[in-house]
Structures are given as structure tokens and as C-alpha cells.
Design goal:
- The chain is mainly α.
- Helices cover 73% and strands 0% of the residues.
- It has ten helices and no strands.
Length: 205
């Protein structure tokens, strides 16, 4: 979201506050103060705090579906695969670490991840978004990657979904660590490197 008008500025500010304080603990007055407008003026743009959250979910879901490396991956599409046909272990490690660094450092993605973490047990809609983004999309992406590497005779043929889970979930755990303790990023990236290398030693054909 670019800061092009008051409605979008309100969404940006609300995301910032929701990702730190949570939805329930953030008031309309706090959002208005942070934007620099009167509370009454905010109601000219959104009818309620829930309206702000609902709009935010729609905008962020659309952006995620358009730009996510996970939702846009198609491991059966020759066009998607054209620069991946000769990937070795080093290239795959680089791909995974580049994705994690993007997720950690993109300011909007970071705020959305924190918002979902806070609100996943309070808001049914956000709970479903969290399940899709943090579980279903990641598992689907990594299952597609593993199946592709099996077809390429890089990995032995075992249960690809279980292999994908073994590859993905420790990486997710270390990514979440970086969300909580950014100063431990170097440690997390080094563990991700070691983890992926061991995965390939175990399953390499």
C-alpha cells in the first residue's frame, strides 16, 4: 500500500498499531492520532475499527496472492521451472535463504506476520489467513519443490509431503525466532544452512 491518500494512510497506520498492540487493544482514537486527523474525520473514511480491519484483510490478501513466492509457484509449469532445471544443493540453499530474508526484512510482510500471530486465536478470518499463509501455502510450495527434485533424480523417492514437512517446518521455526528476536538472525540463518545441507545428505539420490 502506497501512501497516496488518507484512506490508505489509515490502513498503513492501523496495520502498524495492530501488529504491535493487537486489534482489541488499539482504539479508533489511537489510529486517528497516529494518522494526524480527528477521530470524527476518520469516520468519513471507515465506519468502524472492524471496517478498517476487514478492508485491511482484503487488501493484504490480494497483495499476498499476487506477490507471494509460495502462491505463485507452479512446479509443473515449464515457464516457472526454466531457471530451476539445473539447481544443485547450493542453489537451493541460496533460494531458501533468500526467501527467508525477504520474509523477515520486508516491512509490510513482517507487520502482517505479527498481526496474524497476535490475532489468530481471536479472529476467525485471520485464523484462516494464518493457516493458509503459514501452513497450507508453505507445505504446498515445499511439496512441489520436493516432487520436482525427485523427478530430476536429485532426491530419492519417498513420501514427498513428509519430506516437505521435514524441510519446511524447522525453517519456519527459525523464521519465527527472527520475528521475536531480530538480533538472532545470523544464528538462525546459519542453522537453516546446516539444516538444508543435512536434509540433502539424508535424501540425496
Amino acid at each position: 500500500m502506497e501512501r497516496t491518500n488518507t484512506k490508505e494512510i489509515i490502513l498503513q497506520v492501523a496495520l502498524e498499531l495492530f501488529s504491535v498492540k493487537g486489534f482489541e487493544a488499539t482504539s479508533i482514537a489511537q489510529i486517528a492520532d497516529a494518522v494526524g486527523i480527528r477521530k470524527a474525520s476518520l469516520y468519513n473514511h471507515y465506519s468502524s475499527k472492524q471496517d478498517i480491519l476487514d478492508t485491511l484483510i482484503l487488501v493484504l490478501t490480494k497483495q499476498f496472492n499476487e506477490h507471494s513466492i509460495f502462491t505463485n509457484a507452479d512446479w509443473e509449469d515449464p515457464e516457472f521451472l526454466k531457471d530451476k532445471m539445473d539447481m544443485d544443493t547450493e542453489a537451493i540453499i541460496h533460494l531458501i535463504k533468500r526467501q527467508i530474508q525477504y520474509i523477515i526484512h520486508d516491512p509490510q510482510i513482517s507487520k502482517v506476520r505479527k498481526l496474524l500471530t497476535i490475532e489468530q486465536f481471536q479472529n476467525e478470518t485471520l485464523s484462516k489467513v494464518q493457516s493458509k499463509q503459514s501452513y497450507e501455502d508453505i507445505l504446498a510450495y515445499n511439496t512441489g519443490l520436493v516432487k520436482f527434485l525427485i523427478r530430476q533424480n536429485v532426491l530419492i523417492e519417498e513420501d514427498p509431503e513428509i519430506m516437505a514437512a521435514q524441510l519446511a517446518w524447522p525453517v519456519s521455526m527459525w523464521t519465527n525466532l527472527c520475528d521475536r528476536e531480530p538480533e538472532r538472525e545470523a544464528e538462525a540463518m546459519e542453522l537453516i544452512d546446516r539444516h538444508v545441507r543435512q536434509f540433502f545428505r539424508v535424501y540425496k539420490k
